[in-house]
Specification:
The complex is a heterodimer of chains A (289) and B (234). With 289 residues, chain A is mainly α. Helices cover 78% and strands 3% of the residues of chain A. The longest helix of chain A is centred in the first third of the chain and has 31 residues. Chain A is globular, with a radius of gyration of 19 Å. The N and C termini of chain A lie far apart (40 Å). With 234 residues, chain B is an alpha/beta fold. Chain B is built from 11 helices and 10 strands. The two termini of chain B are 34 Å apart. The relative contact order of chain B is 0.18. Classes of the chains: A mainly alpha (289), B alpha/beta (234).
């Protein structure tokens, strides 16, 4: 019995670590840059397929892919904001209109990225085996890659949190999230910070994709599920709260792991039930104002 | 130091400023007086770049600043302490002050400036680790003023610093405004409390319906019949 509990808990933490990264990414894009990026999952898919390709064709260690796929996606996200979203922001009269038009643009991006992935990698499930040696933890047996993934997810999350809490740019990002106009008056270049936030969001998606591919199969259409989970976690954690997204990710991961231990096909349904209950009872989320 | 010539500005389709011109010399305290909706805040927003004028020019230290973004204007040395304080509610008092020192030059000196601000507002030092939203109204205004000072500005524009404060705190706010000038900072002040404002200001401009209707030395405006009737309730 204890073995089972440890098993479910570690699985939950692993899922939670990945959900946390995904949600922190979406939180930066929606909470700060005001873009509800429903193509977020597609960026995760790109990270995962990038890692798969590098491993399969060039024999590159997935952990090294973190520093390849992550920065590439960061630059892509940054460039996307500097071109597409910046011009949308200019042409939209208000922030409300911008949220609408950027949502539609992301919808388009979702299809473009997904179809490019299907043409280049095919529509079938891919996977590779890395660090799948068993490790005994309190009687429960795990593949080593799961523990490595969890350690990296937590490490990346904490590093990013310290970046936001301690550095000058991190403080500017938090200020821009709380009051963009006032941050501008302080001397913060708002357009630049928003583009950086979008880039950091894509970076988190890329990291999550790399880590996911080490434990789970990869598919060109895998993105949407993760986008939905990210939206649920961001609302659960409280919109715009980075620590909230991080904690919310782990909560949802553990719940998902418990539910799928009882009945695997119900985990997504459980997420929706949590989402609906949350909107009814505490729509501001756990860390929301 | 600041020279505004023939500014016209709009809120959507409604014209908010009509042909406004204004001059501020170094180390002056200039008051902007007018009823609610007269365009005072709009004028400050236009100077700090939050609003782009449709026509006219703004020069600061000889350089044109109309059309620049707010962050570029802040870097030139204009601090805007906005209406409603606009603090960062879930950042600590210390972090709010650090944000005030965001421009490159100010960031290098931020520890020294912080000591100075803490000397002016000892309460802020006591509460340095607290989140800004947990402060009382008076402390929040002190923080807003301190944050403005952190950039070591040449010109400080303050919008309604005494709004919502108890009378005793209002006096304190005016004392701080006067001390800014003693540090060599030029001040452009908007205040509901016209009597007090005209007592500390060197000169004042009166805005009505987006137009400047009179200007002059504060001591003369205090004796002006129209001002007395409209703004001082005499």
């Amino acid at each position: 019995m204890i073995m089972k509990i440890v098993d479910v808990l570690i699985c939950g933490l692993l899922l939670g670590g990945i959900y946390a990264l995904i949600a922190v990414g979406l939180s930066l894009q929606y909470g700060v840059a005001r873009v509800l990026n429903i193509s977020h999952g597609e960026l995760i898919m790109l990270g995962a397929f990038g890692t798969w390709s590098l491993y399969t064709f060039f024999d590159i260690n997935p952990l090294i892919s973190l520093v390849i796929c992550g920065p590439v996606l960061f630059l892509a996200g940054f460039a996307l904001h500097k071109t597409l979203f910046k011009s949308l922001l200019k042409s939209s009269g208000s922030i409300g209109a911008f949220e609408g038009s950027s949502l539609l643009a992301c919808f388009g991006l979702l299809f473009i990225i997904q179809n490019i992935a299907i043409t280049s990698w095919g529509a079938d499930i891919k996977g590779y085996s890395y660090l799948s040696v068993p490790v005994n933890l309190g009687g429960a047996i795990f593949a080593a890659n799961r523990l490595v993934t969890l350690a990296f997810a937590v490490g990346i999350g904490i590093t990013f949190y310290l970046f936001l809490a301690r550095t000058r740019l991190g403080k500017a990002i938090r200020a821009a999230a709380q009051d963009p106009a006032a941050a501008g008056l302080m001397g913060v270049n708002i357009n630049h910070v928003l583009a950086l936030c979008f880039g950091f969001g894509a970076l988190m998606a890329g990291f999550a994709g790399v880590l996911l591919s080490m434990c789970y199969p990869v598919k060109a259409t895998m993105g949407l599920e993760y986008t939905i989970i990210a939206i649920i976690v961001v609302v659960l954690g409280g919109l715009g709260s980075i620590p909230g997204s991080f904690i919310g990710g782990f909560i949802l991961g553990i719940i998902g792991s418990i539910v799928s231990y009882i009945e695997p096909s119900l985990s997504l349904a459980a997420y929706y039930i949590i989402f609906i209950l949350l909107l009814l009872v505490k729509p501001t989320g756990i860390m929301g104002k | 130091m600041l020279e505004i010539s023939n500014i016209n500005a709009y809120h959507g389709r409604v014209q908010a400023l009509w042909d406004v011109s204004l001059r501020i010399e170094e180390a002056e305290i200039i008051a902007l007086v007018g009823a609610n909706g007269a365009g005072k805040t709009t004028l400050l927003n236009t100077i700090s770049g939050l609003l782009r004028p449709a026509s006219g020019r703004i020069r600061f230290l000889g350089e044109r600043i109309d059309g620049l973004t707010p962050h570029a204007i802040a870097e030139l040395g204009i601090a805007h302490i906005p209406e409603g304080r606009r603090l960062f509610p879930i950042m600590s008092v210390r972090e709010n002050l650090e944000m005030g020192a965001y421009p490159n030059e100010a960031w290098k000196k931020k520890e020294k400036t912080l000591e100075h601000v803490f000397a002016v507002f000892p309460q802020l030092k006591e509460r340095a680790g607290q989140l800004a939203r947990t402060l009382s109204g008076g402390e929040q205004q002190m923080l807003a003023m301190g944050r403005g000072m952190m950039s070591r500005p040449k010109l400080c524009m303050i919008d309604e610093p005494s709004s919502g404060l108890a009378p005793k705190l209002v006096l304190e706010v005016f004392k701080v405004v006067k001390s800014l000038r003693e540090q060599g900072i030029t001040v452009l002040l908007i205040e509901q409390n016209v009597q007090h404002t005209l007592q500390i200001a060197d000169r004042a401009y009166v805005l009505e319906n987006g137009r400047i209707v009179s200007e002059g030395k504060s001591s003369e405006l205090l004796k002006d019949d129209h001002i007395k009737k409209a703004y001082l309730g005499l």
